[in-house]
Amino acid sequence: MHDAELLDRLLKDIADGGKSALAALYEAVSPAVYSFALSVLGSRADAEDVLQDVFVEIFRSAKGYKSVGKPMGWIISITKSKCLMKLRHDRFTARDADVEALSPPVDFPEDKIIMKLCIEKLPEEERRIVLLKASGLKHREIAEILGMNLSTVLSKYHRALKKLKCALLGKE
Q1: pLDDT, mean of residues 146-164
Q2: Is the pLDDT at 100 greater than 60, yes or no?
């Protein structure tokens, strides 16, 4: 979903003062940034605050960005830093992610409840991987963010999907 060359180009344009590039970058990566912040902070309001802070920081720091082919990693590292600052500042205790905010849109309230209950049954690592993947991140980006091997992320993701399928079909 995130083309590294496009993101690199947008960051260069932002460094040159391009406000339309900032808007395009926001459009491209804000769902992933928000989802990551939400998974760390557990609060929609805090995640929205961090999302705003991240883009202010990107605008300020774009000139210092050195392209190494991993712009999303750079953006997520800013996000992680902002989340940690928020946790320290507010003496906030990290909670589970607000799964409802990341659940796919559904037609019936009962479906949302079922989806939330199924996702909450997953172990924390698997739940984070599924939620980050649902936010549009690639497996390798998730591995980088969580400090895991790509193969570990892939196996945990596929294991989590099997568990979700079984839970949804009532075959627990």
Answers
A1: 90
A2: no
Whether pTM exceeds 0.85: no
Q: Which two tokens stand for residue 31?
A: 């769902």
Place of tokens 């990566």: 29
List of residues 6+ apart from 137 with CB closer than 8 A: 1, 2, 32, 35, 36, 72, 145
Residue 70 CB contacts under 8 Å (≥ 6 apart), including other chains:
4, 144
Q: Please give the residue range of the domain that contains residue 76.
A: 4-90
Contact 135, 101 (CB under 8 A): no
> What are the backbone dihedrals phi and psi of residue 166, each rounded to the nearest 5 degrees, phi first?
-65, -45
Q: Which residues are CB-neighbours of 68 under 8 A, at least 6 positions away?
A: none
Domain count, the chain: 2
pLDDT digits (tens, 9 = 90+) for 67-86: 777 899 899 889 988 887 88
Do 17 and 82 lie in a common domain? yes
CA distance 67 to 166: 42
